[in-house]
């Protein structure tokens, strides 16, 4: 009886994910051509791009130098010279660390006042620094990168093409995670497979091709190309939020209109969290930022974001219960199958051992899974099967894209795809647990601290 009740509840929860599965596969099919920029040719009418790397400390995060080298190498290969590299940092040691690199170090003044926090404060300081040097005009474009971001020739060519075509003021592109893939925990590396697939949805959001027109539900803080005067007019003073990029996208959309945003298609390479704690804290920050921002949005935007967060939350609850129930319900099947294999005898009708065994097992499986199912259950099961297949496919496609830009041997890639398929239930729990925990944590702290309506949380810096 309890099994039936739990299965019913989980089925309802799973059905809430069906619309997401349909939209995901539609946008994957629709956007696969535009996803990665193609036919990117060098045309010598160059704007000035400032490659901006925002870091707590380049001295303590050596991958910043890797990113700088990737910019210089890529620009040299395509003979693009009208660029600048700007590293925004809190660490005074970076001035010496980066003294021999082809970059400008902008040290955030400790006395700088802003209602933004953490990374948002550093981004606002960079805006005001450009304002003082006259680089806040439409002549300049800002390309935002994280500590570990790595650009390629295709990245730079795609940025130049997007600027040249003039179809927007703020652009995004796909991010893949092949760097340090083999150094990361296997679960966090494979769990990162879901992120490239979700970028197909970002194409529709940035090009305003959604069914319900709103500003993008989120924006990546890296692989973001913005015209300098636009960023100057918007700024980053959004108050105490850990998702300043989400607020920035919302403000650009509402100030400059839906046609102000676009998709440049330039790839950016980054790395997965190296351990479980880093993975958890990264996802926790995303969810906290969305919760801090949600009341600042109009109703329809708030509804869409709430739906996304709730399905994220319920993903862990339903997945965890499903694993337990699956083991409980299917244990008799495993025992029955084992018994069949152990006690099997060849029939006297001359059929092969293999053929007879398959027939016996298929009969047992049919009775176990479909014996008591009516038309309604079969229909619901088919819908849920479709949703599950899309979910499994999303991990395989995302992993393929991540590994496509790595140096991992093809034989090992095959093993990783197989591991992902087998571990998908665990990967789903790893991916959704941070949202489950954070939503409970956030609302619990709100109840015990009602005076503070916008709680500020520590910004955890993950290892890179």
Radius of gyration: 25 Å
Known CATH architecture of one domain: Alpha-Beta Complex
Calculate the mean pLDDT score and round it: 84
Major sheet attributes: 7 strands, mixed
CATH topology of one domain: Spore Coat Polysaccharide Biosynthesis Protein SpsA, Chain A
Give the overall form.
globular
CATH evolutionary superfamily of one domain: Spore Coat Polysaccharide Biosynthesis Protein SpsA, Chain A
Portion of residues within helices: 55-70%
Helical element count? 15
Distance between the termini: 49 Å
Sum this structure up briefly.
The protein is α/β, with parallel strands linked by helices.
Write the layout of secondary structure elements.
Elements: H1 2-15, H2 18-35, E1 48-55, H3 63-77, E2 83-89, H4 94-97, E3 104-107, H5 118-133, E4 140-145, H6 153-165, E5 170-172, E6 175-176, H7 186-191, H8 194-206, E7 224-227, H9 228-234, H10 244-256, E8 261-263, E9 268-269, H11 276-293, H12 299-343, H13 353-370, H14 375-404, H15 410-448
Parallel strand pairs: 1-2, 1-4, 2-3, 5-8, 6-9
Antiparallel strand pairs: 4-7, 5-7
Explain what the structure shows.
By secondary structure, the protein is α/β, with parallel strands linked by helices. It contains 15 helices and nine strands. The chain has helices at residues 2-15, 18-35, 63-77, 94-97, 118-133, 153-165, 186-191, 194-206, 228-234, 244-256, 276-293, 299-343, 353-370, 375-404, 410-448; strands at 48-55, 83-89, 104-107, 140-145, 170-172, 175-176, 224-227, 261-263, 268-269. The chain has a seven-stranded mixed β-sheet, sandwiched between helices. Strands 6-9 form a two-stranded parallel sheet. Helix 1 (2-15) packs across helix 12 (299-343) and helix 12 (299-343) packs across helix 13.
